[in-house]
Structure formats: C-alpha cells, structure tokens
What does this fold into?
Amino acid sequence: MEVRVDDKVALVTGASRGIGAAVAAELLASGARGVVVTSRKPENIEPAAERLGEPDRVLAVVAKADEPEHAADAVEKAISHFGACDILVNNAGTSPAVGDLATVDIGAVQKTWAVNQLGPLLYAREAWGQWMRANGGAIVNIASIAGLEPSPWLGAYNVSKAGVIHLTRQLALEMAPGVRVNAVAPAVVRTQLAEALWKDHEAETAAAHPLGRIGEPQDIANAVVFLASDAASWITGVTLPVDGGATGAKGGTLGQASG
It folds into this structure.
C-alpha cells in the first residue's frame, strides 16, 4: 500500500530538526502540495526549510508552540500561502523539568506543560477555526510512551504527554466526523531532545526495546503520514505506539522520555 497525501497542505510544529524535520520531508515525499514548518528561532527554521529542498512547496514560519497569536499566524500563513490547512502535526515539545514533581522547579513544570500540552490545543483550535471545521482535515499529535505510565525524574514531561493522549481522544470526539485526530507515541528516538537517554549507552538502551534498536525519526514520520493520509480514513482517537515493542511486546514502558 502506497500512502499518499497528494494535494494536501500540512503544518508541522517544531520542525527544525529530529522528528518534525523527518515528518515534513515525508509529507513532501508523499505528495503534499505545501508544508509549513515552524520553530521558535529563525536561525533554526530557515536552514531547516532550505534543507528540505523544495522552496516552492515549503514555508518557514517563526512561531512558538505555546503562544496563541503565533498559532493563529502560522495557520493563517498556511492558508494564505498554499490555500489550505488540511493536516496539522503537533510535534513541538520540550523537557526542561527534570526531577520529582514534589520538588522540581515549578517554572520549568509550567513551561513543559505549556509547550507540550497547551501548544497542541492552541494549534488545533486555530486549524479547526480557520479551515478544518468547514473543509475537514487530520490532526496528528506527537505523544510519548512516557505518557502511558509514571517513571522517575520526568514527571512533568510524563504528565504532559498523558495530557496529549487524552487531548487526542477529546478532540477526536468533538471534531468528528469531519476531522480525524490521532497521536503517535514514540519510545526512545535518535533526536537531540532524547540524547541523554541514548548517546553514551546506545547498546543498552537499544536492548531495552524488543526490536533491538532505538527509533529513528523516519520511523515516527512514517506513522504520522499514514495517520494523516486517507489510508487511515476510519481511524480517529487512537494513540499508536511506535516504540520497538516497548509497550506491546514487553507489557510496560521504558520509563523514559522520547522525541
């Protein structure tokens, strides 16, 4: 089965590197007419857009994940530049709050929850209000297996991703039937955000996954594009673990953040 998103316009948040950049590239390879990529820093997103190699099909927008006006602007630019906003991928994430919830810096907790949990809602509301309510569409949120059960040190991140999983289900109910809302839950992926989890002990981390390796951004991109495509037209409200078997084959999570 060939998964295609021909003539669709997509918006991918946090797309300067890692999973977001891989998702943007896969959307283009799968026929997207236009892809808007965002990051909070112009020095990051503009080179990332250039690396995609499709200047007529890619628009870089400087936008923070947790600023309502930035979400509104990014969606408006997708519509004004490419004529639509058919697909939204909420990928932007952060994990600055390391420690127990009882003692970790509350400002870091608030930032984690604002970016990881409020951000997807802000962008979903704008995509819905400006385009999808009238025209339909698909939203894919990047969650994490860390949102499926608790683990030490990453409580703020875990709670935020658990919120994304339930947000996915809630929006799927509210936005049906015209808009499908799903999520992908990675385990440890070779990204900068998750670098502390694998860089100095990759073999050990890989062995914790039944499939014997850590994830690559492309693994997540493949799943995201499938869920965004018409091949998944009867799927909504689902969180798909893409985790090397960490949840399904082992019956539990790795207790680590992903992304």
The chain has one domain: 9-242. The radius of gyration is 17 Å. The CA atoms of residues 14 and 160 lie 16 Å apart.
